[in-house]
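Input protein
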Amino acid sequence: MTEYDMVIIGGGPIGLYATFYAGLRDMRALVIDAQDELGGQLVTLYPEKVVYDVGGYPGILAYDLAQNLIEQAKMFSPDIRINEWADMIERTPDNMWIIKTDKGGAFKTKTILIAAGIGKIIPSRLNAKGEIEYENKGVYYTVRRKRDFEGKRILIVGGGDSAVDWALTLSPVAKSVTLIHRRDQFRAHERSVKQMFQVATVYTWHELKEVKGDGSKVTQAVIFDNRTKEEKTLDVDAVIISIGHKGDLGNMVKWGLNMKGRSITVNGKMETNLAGVYAAGDIVEQEGTPKLALIATGFAQAAIAVSVAKKYIDPNASVFAGHSSEMDNKFKK
């Protein structure tokens, strides 16, 4: 069984930065992520949106930021496993940890860093007729790449910020954009809603009844007025269902961690109540510290967790090893 100095659970921005920082501290690392690609919420929820609150970038596309973080994380050749759940953990007689996954994997490690964000991101579905049949054949729950929708007739379902933002983002490239919402009030910025009515056809009090297609792609959508039950059939090439996502933490609640709701409680050193187990990012509730769900905050937490873990593994090591600018030899290997 391969042994690691640290296993990072979660391949989002915080897990990726922690993977890089573990390599910087000469720690053999493995990152495990339940999604089918690295990047977390940056690629799953809002890849085409601009991120403004990361130092050094006045503005950067979330997808591009994710790719930069992936490149950085791979600098010290960590092992990476995607589309795999960290299912259970157990303590070994020699004070290490075994992480077991849903794919039958078992990995032994000296320390664990949990950077799972909100957990595995699962889209909320309407369960309309034809929805599952045409999933990824014209039915989508987010927009991964804007160019995939160029020249298409798009139907967006939803009334929140994401739905309205996608209508505004896609209208310049799409042939047409139609948005339906089951109420007449939108959970989005007023200015954005006003702009949306100028660039998209909007039906309030309408819901999606059925998605139709030719077996390989979407061709039509049936919508209905939820007050009168009157139906309309729209010719569409894509249906984007933007009604939210849920985070699934799997069996993490059974690991023996102290938690407050869906958050893992940690101290100022990012230590959990389990020896050698740390946490960082959106998933943590840090004692005495306001919770800021920011990437910048998570980066700092990851650096602290890795540094404290290094000292845990090697008592002779320094918590602070110096600035990266003083470690040129590490980057030249």
In short: The mean pLDDT is 94. The chain is about 20% helix and 30% strand. The domain at 125-243 is CATH 3.50.50.60 (FAD/NAD(P)-binding domain). The longest strand covers residues 106-114.
